[in-house]
Amino acid sequence: MGDTLEFNEIYQEVKGSWNDGRLRFSKQNVVYKSSKTGKVDSIPAGELNLAQWRRVCLGHGIKLGTSAGHVYKYDGFRDTDFEKISEFFKANYKVELTEKDMCVKGWNWGTAKFSGPLLSFDVNDNTAFEIPLSNVSQCATGKNEVTLEFHQNDDTEVSLMEVRFYVPPSQSDERQDPVEAFAQSVLSKADVIQATGDAVCIFKELQCLTPRGRYDIRIYPTFLHLHGKTFDYKIPYTTVLRLFLLPHKDQRQMFFVISLDPPIKQGQTRYHFLILLFSKEEDINLTLNMSEEDVERRFEGKLSKNMSGSLYEMVSRVMKALVNRKITVPGNFQGHSGAQCITCSYKASSGLLYPLERGFIYVHKPPVHLRFEEISCVNFARGTTTTRSFDFEIETKQGNQYTFSSIEREEYGKLFDFVNAKKLNIKNRGFKEGMKGKIDEYSDSDDDQHDAYLERMKAEGKIREEGNDSDESDAESDESFNPGEEDDDIAEEYDSNASASDSSDDGDDSDDESSKKKKAKKAKVVKEKKERKPRKEKKQKDTGGPKRPMSAYMLWLNSSRERIKAENPGISITEISKKAGEMWRQLGKEEKEEWEAKAGEAKRQYDKAKKEYKESGGSTSVSKKESKKSGGKKEEKKRKSAGGDKDKERGGGNDSFKSREFIETSEESSSDSDHKSKSKRKKESDEEEEEAVSTPASSEEDSD
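The structure assignment produced for this chain is given below.
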């Protein structure tokens, strides 16, 4: 046995996370060096009074205890290491390394034992788990329940948030409640803020938006205590970053916002802001629980023993004096409605955005505070739901983006002036400065800023125009709306000085242009018809060939269908299929192989019959016969359509009667148009006749 024992890849437990490192046992001390932080822990050999060998998560572990009450846990040993470590401890530390069995049965009834800084939960004298009380951040009591909350370690992937113990009522007539006794044992070693002395003042039943509910706020010299029906929160003044006092848009309420870092936690939820809502009409007479000399000495005139005024003024004044931080209020910004905030939505919840002198704050769900120094750029974007609103986007230097949507269009000018005055980087500055303050011109498109929605609308419009063969729309471009240019067009169109002769000349020119466009359009249609690919002929089904074989599943289903019906009377067809599918999946491999063999035999028979059928020429004769039949049907259909058009041309229908009556009573221009339509119909009927005459010849050639 040497003077030292060294082990690599040994893990030390720190607030729920395991940090790897090296452990060395020497005659003088126990030294552990963390590979992650480089920190070295040294335990003098003379202070060791407890050594336990335990089966733990990473193999085997050692728990060491000192006479000062400190506990150290190491994990990652092998089973073969026990003997040499035990001999080393006996020879050098005069401490026996005892084996300690852990309870792994998952029982939830046991005994809570407090031994120094540890709370151990034992089941039948075997430890189920241990809790270092120094990790406890909150201890709350109920009727028969104690809840422990823990400090969080950011290095852990999974964290234990809280543990609840049920303490059954005691049968003996003890004066002390067992729940309170349990809580006091925890608090004696826990890292928990405890109230020492009386509160400076108490505010009863204040409305709190975050966390939601009504809370009594007890003001202590070093921390703030929120006491509600369900939860208690103790907030040290050292965690308070900023204080905000913000007027509501209705001018009848006030928000008092407390920014916290680190936040208060409830389960998985973290509250970075404490938001109180007050009515301006609510007053209070406040008396501090301190002597006048103590108030004067501690607060130096900021507070007095007896104060009266609005409730929100008293709360903010007391908090300012105790936290020793300034209260931030809105600056010179004033919106379209005269309020110091803007109504908008963030993450589908409506709220209020306050432009401050050094940042923005959004109240209230979820609250957001953005300082100018952490903002990379801002952007004014077109509203996604309606043209009556716009979106205000803020991008931070860390790459996070916040979009405040559904802002009324009237607020645009005021907000742009504010952002511009604060010299924030605006993505689309060139466009916006030209439009600043002009509400009517707000809806213009931004040429500098890429708008994906506008590009998509343009592309869809272009496709639609090509489908309709609209040459007029091809000549125009999708331009921005310019009010000044549009006014000029209107003035020219409704010019009162325009003469009749000018209008007639313009009309002749327009007729020539329209006729040219019609001819070009017609030529384009004819060209497209010629270039159009011939329609692919539908493949005729060969009804005379052999029937395709069934799969193994279908063969099994046909043989099992009656049995399934008998076993399940009244079952529907769909339920039979569903039941059969389940039964097929549950069939054994041997049974499935039997049906698959039958399906293979059927497939071979089918291939053989199909080969014989093709050699006999059955498929070709059927296809020729069916093609002849289809050709005859097409010929008869075309002849009928040609004959119907000839009858229509002769004027036997009501349409020709109406057109003759219309010609007698109408002007010359209308008769010309009617004559053109008649000639057009005659030309179409002639083309169909020619097509009908040519079709039989082609079909006869195919048959030959």
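Interim note for the steering committee: Residues 161 and 267 are 6 Å apart (CA to CA). The chain has a mean pLDDT of 75.
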